[in-house]
Amino acid sequence: MRVLLLGRVMRRERYNVVIAHEDRTHLGLAKKKVWEQEKILVNDRVWFYQVSDTEVSVERTAGRKNYFLRPPVANLDLLVYLHSFKNPQCDVRYLDLTLGLGKLQDIPILLLFHKADLVQKEDVDPWVDLYTKLGYEVMVTSVHYDLTVLKERLRGKTVLFSGPTGVGKSSLVKALWKEAPVRVGDISRTGRGKHTTSWVELLPFEDTYVVDAPGFSLLEMPPMNPWDIQRMFPEIEAMAKNCFFSDCLHLKEPHCAVKEAVEKGLIAESRYNSYLYYLKKQEEAKKR
Questions:
Q1: Of 24, 76, 120, 236, which is most buried, counting CB atoms within 10 Å of its CB?
Q2: Separation between Cα atoms, residue 109 and residue 127, nearest integer Å
């Protein structure tokens, strides 16, 4: 009789995974049917049985509280997004996309306005104020600042760092944990479109697990309908209840409460522009 054990997926590479169970790791193999139905992801809890001393057969996953397919990771405790205003000057639309995708997956998000030592405080404060009022957790950081509070916030968590190439994910991880390899989350040398990496893994640093996904710098937007896009922006979703038309997309419809709120400054124009951008992007994707 086969005895099923519960393990944790520490690494995924093509159709192979590395499973941690107690104090050992095993090469996990899964049948094509299991891959297609379960889509085994890094940090999944999986049921498996022993095939040999070093190999196990993965039977099924044990349920998820959240997940992303690109990068393929599940059960995150925290999504940390880095945004900088200089070197590089990041596009706020990617920030809003990450916040929105995290909201749809019910993943707590920590927004870091990073490389803050390169800009003036008065340039950062309005953005801190905007996103704090929207209910997001925000910190202003730099590798040259004291990171004690940030490190304590990450303690005991499984964390995915996200942000544009060059924003400083690797250097921040290295500043938090001196033993961290420089490559963590850094794809600037490989390039997103070259597919030079096909693996994702969990790296333990003290009592924090960091998702190492060198082939992915930003979360990818899956196909979604306009109402899901609206849900990514809680202030727009809340104001939409006051629109005259129940199916209002807040484009050119008359008596649109969302557009009126933007004009009055009740909804930030940058947030509304991000909403329009991703609405248009999904429409263009449908026509391809």
A1: 76
A2: 16
Q: In the prediction, which pLDDT does 58 show?
A: 92
Q: Within 13 Å and on the Cβ side, how many CA atoms surround 91?
A: 10
Angle, vertex CA 251, rays to CA 84 and CA 109, nearest 5: 35
Looking up tokens 């940390």, which residue turns up?
Answer: 80
Residue 141 tokens read as 């950081």
For the residues of 55-115, what is the DSSP string, one character each? EEEEEEE---S-EEETTEEE--SEEEEEEEBSSSB--HHHHHHHHHHHHHTT--EEEEEE-
Return all residues near 86 (Cβ < 8 A) that are at least 6 apart: 115, 118, 119
What is the domain extent for residue 174?
A: 68-212
Domain count, the chain: 3
Contact assessment for residue 68 and residue 99, using Cβ atoms and an 8 Å cutoff:
no
In this structure, the answer to whether residues 132 and 77 fall within a common structural domain is yes
Count the alpha carbons within 13 Å of 109 in the hemisphere toward its beta carbon. Answer: 26
> Structure pTM?
0.89
What is the model's pLDDT at position 216? 75
Tokens of 160: 């995915």
